[in-house]
């Protein structure tokens, strides 16, 4: 090793392609990350894990028992997609791989940017919006608490218990207000406190409390129903949006829709105190219908990888990747379903990156 | 009374204008209903109740203690809007008037049609959709169960318990499948069973069970996040949509958005076995910002009144009102916020009705 090579900062990266098109898009994203690393003077040491539904069918588990411990030593996780409902129920695959990682490493902030890339036609007439959704990622409506009694009888009752903790709500709100400071200084906090009078009234109270520490950030509070309408009718009025696990889940799929589809929706599952690795993944799923055809759009995965480099401190490389994506879509590459193959899109982005 | 007058079928109607623009739009709707009644040979005997936030400030209650008993003898309820958050918290006003009526009369089916009226510009590029959302209206995520412990401390935990009963889920699904039979024969059932594994898995099971009794109806099952995206990306692919209280709430505001705004969103709270009155109300709220200015769009309220007449069996009158609304909007009347006053729009619809 030369002196230079030895001094290069190198990141340890866990790669989990997962199922279906997850495999195609993570391989595209890795090609882009490696090119960016070479040009921006850092190293990537990646280790791939074949944890997936196929792995489940072979071994009876989505990941080994020590899977979480194995991941702990990495600087970041890049994930493709999890789920293959034809052979493994989602309730098994997601609860056996994706969701435990989010919880185990306290990746409580799920960040999803929504804006139109140049050249992409969205379903809305509106095209000038730039929204950052911050979704609570560890508790709330997806706590898993609840149960069923008199199952299978005419008297059956099923409950689902949403659980919100002070720590959980406060930290995600602070995270959102912090994000707003480096953007346009506005937070919209989304609840449904007129109908859910325990959990959502609590969230509203916490929003008012946290807002006091951010006099420089403006805040509005909206109900999820009105908010869903606003995403469609006035998306340009939004800056940072913060919401519970369920509401954030819904709003970010809606955000993906208005930005032209899931092919463009990137996401980061952030562990803000860095006590464990953060995880980066496109919002889309494994897409069994187009898996293995080489036509999946890798842009969401590549954008997610750029968010990863940004999180690791490689902001110039992250910015260069985003610019390369934009250069490609501005030329119409990858902007419409089926117009280009996964390879074509990746090649165009790599070329723009080398420019 | 002449013989004819004595033989005219007369409906007993409870009118609750409520707050803000609720007053303007119900008066517009009543004018249309009365004209339709005169032309179609039936009578309307209406009694008005001033139950509202103003009533609360005077009396300490949104409605009298025997309010529900008073309403029981009516054939239908026409409601404007409830809520005036400046003086009465929503958690008081809604839980003191709107929500108890829905529950007391087992108005378990909240029906909301979403399509573009002629001349109305929606926010989507897509314009050819015709969706009927059926929202469960009595239980689920808005059950009110749950609570808070260690309130106000750093250890606070808030819970919200969604409660789904076999009776509640089965009846709303059957209602939706029945509706599909008189439309295009397709039902989309919306859950989030990959993350809410008690309540939503139960709903999915019930969907499969009920579907067996409707071999002539096709069904698909979607998660709420993907569904929100689909409403925006492919609304024309939807016919009847059935969802829980919360999911239906969100999807119908989204439906209102894609149909051009809340000014066009009508709704019916139906008690299908007619053991009590059904209630008809525009989806919009009291809109404090434009209340009393005479510029509220009455179309949603008038459309809701048409749904009321349809429910009462006056299908020709209901159809005539809808045609009159369409005749007005086709001329550009009431199609854009602020373009016409409440009176102008009502006058145009009345004129079309008399044509
Ligand atoms: C697959 C599913 C459990 C997941 C979620 O709801 O968290 C997905 O929809 C997402 O948004 O990341
Ligand atoms: C006002 C509110 C409680 C109500 C609801 O959520 O039911 C409204 O949003 C609606 O959709 O009718």
Automatic annotation (TrEMBL), chains A, B:
Q: Record keywords: Manganese included?
A: yes
EC numbers on record: 1.1.1.83, 1.1.1.93, 4.1.1.73
Transmembrane parts of this sequence: none
Q: Name the Gene Ontology molecular function terms of this record.
A: D-malate dehydrogenase (decarboxylating) (NAD+) activity; magnesium ion binding; NAD binding; tartrate decarboxylase activity; tartrate dehydrogenase activity
Report the catalytic activity: tartrate + NAD(+) = 2-hydroxy-3-oxosuccinate + NADH + H(+); (2R,3R)-tartrate + NAD(+) = 2-hydroxy-3-oxosuccinate + NADH + H(+); (R)-malate + NAD(+) = pyruvate + CO2 + NADH; (2R,3R)-tartrate + H(+) = (R)-glycerate + CO2
Query: In the UniProt record, does the keyword tRNA processing occur?
Result: no
Record's keyword terms, sorted: Manganese, Metal-binding, NAD, Oxidoreductase
Q: Its family? A: Belongs to the isocitrate and isopropylmalate dehydrogenases family.
Return the protein name.
D-malate dehydrogenase [decarboxylating]
């Amino acid at each position: 090793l030369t002196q230079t090579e030895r001094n290069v900062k190198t990141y340890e990266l866990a790669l989990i392609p997962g199922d279906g098109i997850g495999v195609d898009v993570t391989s595209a994203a890795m090609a882009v990350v490696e090119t960016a690393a070479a040009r921006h003077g850092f190293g990537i040491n990646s280790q791939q894990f074949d944890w997936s539904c196929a792995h489940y069918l072979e071994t009876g588990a989505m990941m080994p028992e020590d899977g979480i411990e194995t991941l702990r030593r990495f600087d970041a996780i890049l994930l493709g997609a999890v789920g293959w409902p034809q052979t493994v129920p989602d309730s098994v695959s997601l609860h056996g791989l994706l969701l435990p990682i989010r919880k185990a490493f306290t990746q409580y902030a799920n960040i999803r940017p929504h804006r139109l890339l140049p050249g992409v036609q969205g379903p809305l007439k509106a095209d000038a919006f730039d929204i950052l959704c911050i979704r609570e990622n560890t508790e709330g409506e997806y706590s898993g608490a609840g149960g069923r009694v008199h199952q299978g009888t005419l008297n059956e009752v099923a409950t689902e218990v949403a659980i919100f903790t002070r720590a959980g709500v406060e930290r995600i709100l602070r995270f959102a207000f912090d994000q707003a400071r480096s953007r346009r200084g506005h937070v919209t906090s989304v609840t449904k406190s007129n109908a859910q009078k325990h959990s959502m009234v609590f969230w509203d109270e916490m929003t008012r409390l946290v807002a006091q520490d951010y006099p420089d950030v403006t805040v509005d509070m909206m109900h999820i129903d009105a908010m869903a309408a606003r995403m469609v009718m006035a998306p340009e009025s939004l800056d940072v949006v913060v919401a519970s696990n369920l509401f954030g889940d819904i709003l970010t799929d809606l955000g993906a829709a208005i930005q032209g589809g899931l092919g463009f929706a990137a996401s980061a599952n952030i562990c803000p105190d860095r006590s464990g690795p953060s995880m980066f993944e496109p919002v889309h799923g494994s897409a069994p219908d187009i898996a293995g055809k080489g036509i999946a759009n890798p842009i969401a995965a590549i954008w997610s990888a750029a968010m990863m480099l940004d999180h690791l401190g490689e902001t110039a490389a992250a910015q260069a990747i985003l610019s390369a994506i934009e250069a490609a879509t501005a030329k119409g590459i990858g902007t419409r379903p089926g117009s280009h193959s996964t390879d074509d899109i990746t090649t165009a982005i790599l070329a723009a990156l080398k420019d």
